[in-house]
Design goal:
The chain is of the alpha+beta class. It has 20 helices and 21 strands. Bound molecules: adenosine monophosphate.
Length: 589
């Protein structure tokens, strides 16, 4: 298929702000795509060339791409630099530069999707000595035969900024509509949740139809999408729903999915990124702790003070980015313990459809407790008094609270439901609990804040409609350094208009693609006519707002926008707060 046909669809997708229209455009594109290009088109639409967990990424440095543009167009550095300042999007720079290029290409065969994909793949795989030069050559070659519109998307791909705003679940919708019926959508979603690979789902659908999806199984070294929890306010409510339940300590750290075989160990984050290199101590621990030949174990990695044995703040692990020597230093200074809470595969056997009790037994059989890895602390009960005592123990041990799990629950990949319920300490006080909100825009700063942002526009996630709805402006809690770095930090997320999945009555000075999640503490939740979160749920013509929000300093890099606090959770929190304060709904502006 010609790449220009894909670009036609991308331009239309980019221009729409309606999710349904976006899905229809995608369906049109998928229908026109020949089978051999389908997987490639799906990955390109996701803005990548392989599923996340493979860790094969583009993300070329902007400077390098600018050099290639100069070379490929014959325009001078200064002109490319000016365009970059003006547009702030290298894709647009490429489009304009190619349109203005000095010499026309000798060869005028149209670019094919396969050629674009293969070149991008080759660029991503280049490494080692001389790789920079080879990458430059490959990109020059592509741009040499690209039209201006094609160049825009090629360049956006290589810098890792596709800007289409298509969520993975929109692609799931489109795949179901193209290759199956609406009623089959849950099967398509399930295949994605188990494989974390939309390209594979597309390939199977196109070649074998919906029935082929049953052959997509949990596989070692391919992460499964994480099961998520709901929250409830009281232990009584939890027991009402679950009856006798397993209560586990809720550790405050980083979720890790460990895939283990005798020859190989890989660790994945909640976002399915490969984080093996960040936790050498877990890899060592797993090597001796896992008895079976192969296993997939999930747990929470918590930094522990080696001197006192006490848990340390989560931030100590979230900083584990830098070089290998730096990671090794940190793994000695603040080693983590992996508190394992689930076992999804043992030997060759997929356990996800087995009840919790069986998986727990498997977990305890698989993991030898050591300093680096141990099973989570658990108590099975239906007695509120016992549960309260266990909750106090968890807090004393430095945990956030408890996670209740239904004894008969299967592992529902990618799902959030009442099979797992979190119960955290902060529920006793009105909004002393923190919430996680998504940054969707910003207002320009004035006075002391001129040149940076005065406030960020924050949204909660509406998981029913799959959109982000505003709930507050956030301007406090940032130190000067963070504050002045904000425009640069959000450069890649800037959009010219409201992104498709954002619902806002406020018009910020800049819009951002919903991506970054910040932890926020607020004084209370109020009914507000200017925010769209939970619109009309508590009062007609009003949504919910967070009053006096403050950034806690914690960038929730471990959470994607869909993991943010949901509108439904805010409605529930509002209800609890009202019960506690027994006040009339407060109004805010
Ligand atoms: P939250 O991030 O507040 O939505 O809480 C859910 C997270 O708690 C999970 O994604 C895990 O990372 C973490 N967690 C800590 N302890 C447990 C546990 N025992 N079982 C399941 N999840 C846990």
């Amino acid at each position: 298929m010609k790449f220009s046909e894909v670009v036609d669809a991308y331009e239309k997708i980019e221009a729409t702000t309606k999710r349904l229209e976006m899905t229809e455009l995608l369906v049109g594109l998928l229908r026109r795509t020949p089978r051999e290009d389908l997987e490639k088109v799906v990955y390109l639409t996701q803005g990548r060339i392989h599923p996340d967990y493979e860790g094969i990424e583009l993300g070329l440095a902007e400077k390098m791409v600018m050099r290639v543009l100069t070379h490929a167009t014959g325009l001078d550095d200064a002109r490319i630099g000016r365009l970059w300042k003006e547009k702030g999007d290298l894709g647009l720079v490429a489009q304009e530069a190619i349109a203005a290029r000095r010499q026309r290409p000798l060869e005028s065969t149209p670019l094919t999707t396969a050629k674009v994909y293969e070149h991008l793949d080759a660029i991503a795989r280049e490494s080692g000595e001389g790789s920079q030069e080879r990458k430059i050559r490959l990109l020059s070659d592509l741009l040499g035969s690209a039209t201006p519109r094609e160049a825009k998307y090629v360049v956006r791909m290589v810098v890792g900024q596709m800007r289409l705003g298509v969520a993975d679940m929109t692609i799931v919708d489109a795949l179901a509509a193209t290759f199956a019926t609406k009623a089959d959508r849950p099967r398509v979603e399930r295949a994605y949740n188990v494989s974390s690979d939309l390209g594979e789902v597309a390939r199977v659908l196109a070649s074998k139809g919906v029935d082929g999806l049953k052959d997509i199984h949990l596989k070692l070294f391919r992460p499964i999408r994480a099961m998520l929890a709901e929250r409830l306010e009281t232990l009584e409510e939890i027991f009402e729903r679950m009856g006798k339940a397993a209560l586990e300590y809720k550790y405050d750290g980083l979720r890790v999915q460990a895939h283990v075989s005798p020859k190989r160990i890989e660790l994945f984050s909640r976002h399915l990124e490969n984080i093996t290199g960040q936790f050498p101590e877990i890899v060592d621990g797993l090597r001796s702790a896992i008895k079976d030949r192969a296993a997939i174990v999930e747990g929470e990695a918590v930094p522990v003070d080696p001197n006192t044995g006490e848990f340390l703040p989560f931030q100590e692990v979230s900083r584990r980015r830098g070089r290998k020597t730096e990671v090794e230093r940190m793994s000695k200074e603040f080693p983590v313990t992996l508190f394992a809470f689930d076992c999804l595969l043992r030997s060759e056997e997929d356990l996800t459809a087995r009840p919790y009790t069986e998986r727990r037994k498997a977990l305890e059989g698989v993991v030898h407790a050591s300093d680096e890895i141990r099973p989570s602390t658990v108590r099975v009960t239906d007695d509120v008094k016992q549960a309260e005592a266990f909750f106090d123990e968890a807090l004393q041990a430095g945990c956030e609270g408890l996670m209740a799990k239904a004894l008969d629950s299967t592992y529902d990949a990618g799902g959030r439901g009442y099979q797992w319920i979190k119960f955290k300490k902060e529920y006793s006080a009105a909004l002393s609990d923190t919430i996680d909100l998504v940054v969707i825009g910003a207002f320009a700063g004035r006075g002391k804040r001129a040149g940076t942002y005065g406030a960020l526009l924050m949204a909660a996630y509406d998981d029913v409609a799959d959109v982000f709805r505003t709930t507050c402006k956030l301007g406090t809690g940032f130190d000067d350094e963070t504050l002045y770095a904000l425009p640069d930090r959000f450069k890649g997320e800037r959009r010219d208009r409201r992104p498709a999945r954002v619902d806002s009555k406020l018009e910020p000075d800049v819009w951002f693609e919903p991506k970054t999640v910040l932890e926020v503490r607020g004084a209370e939740i109020t009914v507000s006519p200017i925010h769209t979160c939970a619109w009309g749920v508590l009062r007609p013509g009003a949504g919910l707002a967070i009053r006096f929000p403050r950034f806690t300093g914690r960038w929730r890099d471990d959470k994607g926008p869909e993991d943010a606090t949901t509108a439904k959770e805010l409605v529930e929190m509002y209800g609890r707060q009202l019960k506690q304060t027994k006040k009339e709904p407060a109004s805010s502006r």
